[in-house]
Design goal:
By secondary structure, this protein is an alpha+beta fold. The protein is built from 1 helix and 3 strands, in the order αβββ. The termini are far apart.
């Protein structure tokens, strides 16, 4: 009666060392890729929140302009204090600037106000990002 050749069921020392070397090279790269993907997913979300916060404040200014008891004269930066942080949005700061302009919207003059809302926030990588949205309010 002949016996079948014996096959070892475990890894040899060389195979274990090769596996450890491969894992030590591959695992850090995988973790880096996963972290980078998470940061890339977060950036558009943060930008979208900044856009929404800026649009919300622009709508407030436009509503004040249209309000008969407030009107054009009410639209000055002093009536829109800086918010740091914005209530309910930790990490976001918002400020409004108002510049009186002439009809060309560049030079000095009256009758037009350029309202700019600036939202600052910390991006996914901790770098401060800025989003600005502007609207023109008229006295006519």
């Amino acid at each position: 009666m002949s016996r079948a050749p014996h096959r070892p069921g475990a890894f040899s020392l060389i195979e274990a060392i090769i596996a450890i070397v491969i894992l030590s090279v591959a695992v850090p790269a995988m973790f880096w890729a996963v972290r980078d993907a998470a940061e890339r997913r977060a950036e558009p979300v943060m930008l979208n929140r900044a856009r929404w916060l800026a649009a919300e404040k622009i709508e407030d200014v436009l509503a004040d302009r249209a309000n008969p008891s407030r009107g054009y004269a009410y639209v000055v930066a002093a009536n829109y204090p800086a918010e740091s942080p914005v209530a309910g949005f930790a990490g976001f700061a918002r400020q409004v600037t108002v510049a009186e302009r002439g009809p060309d919207l560049v030079g000095a003059g009256t009758g037009y106000k350029v309202v700019t809302v600036r939202v600052d926030y910390a991006g996914a990588r901790g770098v401060t990002r800025t989003f600005e949205l502007a609207a023109v309010v008229t006295d006519y």
